Amino acid sequence: MRLLEREKDKEKDKGKGGAVPASSGSSTSIPVKKSWASPESREGKELQPSTFEPGDGSASEDNKPSTKKARKLWTKEETQMLIDGCEAHGVGNWTTILNDPSYSFQSRSATDLKDRYVLMLSDLSESP
User: Fold this and answer.
1) pLDDT value at position 68?
2) What PROSITE patterns does UniProt report for this protein, alphabetically (predicted)?
3) Domains defined for the chain, CATH in brackets
4) CB of 100 within 8 A of CB of 81?
5) Which member of 7, 50, 93, 123 has the lowest number of beta carbons within 10 Å of its beta carbon?
């Protein structure tokens, strides 16, 4: 009975031109979706001008608030505290240095300390 139904479906699809035989060799058909509108369906319709404006919440724009903080230059005192902290706690213990109450890093993160240390090393290696 199923074979007869499939054959009837095939006959219906042949007239429509909307099915393509499956590539796996089975007797089932895969419907093909037409993606282009015919010229007749577009008659009488005008194209509307684009109303895109930057910042309108499009997919390319993140709707999250910016987490990037303003750049703050390092003072000589902060740099010296970083050097002292590395001597006391060891290089790489940035969070320990940051949390040490004997040092006062205002609005600095452990990553800021690491970045400053790496920059100091590169400056030292470049100087003669």
Assistant:
1) 79
2) MYB_LIKE (PS50090)
3) 2-31 (no CATH), 76-126 (1.10.10.60)
4) no
5) 50
Q: Is residue 30 within a helix (H) or strand (E), and if so which, with residue range?
A: strand 29-31
**Amino acid identity, residue 39?**
P
Structure tokens that stand for 92 in this block: 């790489």
Q: How many residues are there in the chain?
A: 128
Each residue's pLDDT tens digit, 32-89? 655 555 666 666 666 565 555 555 554 555 567 777 778 899 999 999 999 999 999 9
Any alpha helices (H) in the chain, and if so which ranges? 2-16, 76-89, 94-99, 110-126
Which secondary-structure segment (H or E) carries 121? helix 110-126
Query: Which amino acid does the sequence have at 84?
Result: D
Asked whether 104 and 85 are in contact (CB, 8 A), the reply is: no
**Which two tokens mark 86?**
């590395």
Higher pLDDT, 45 or 19: 45
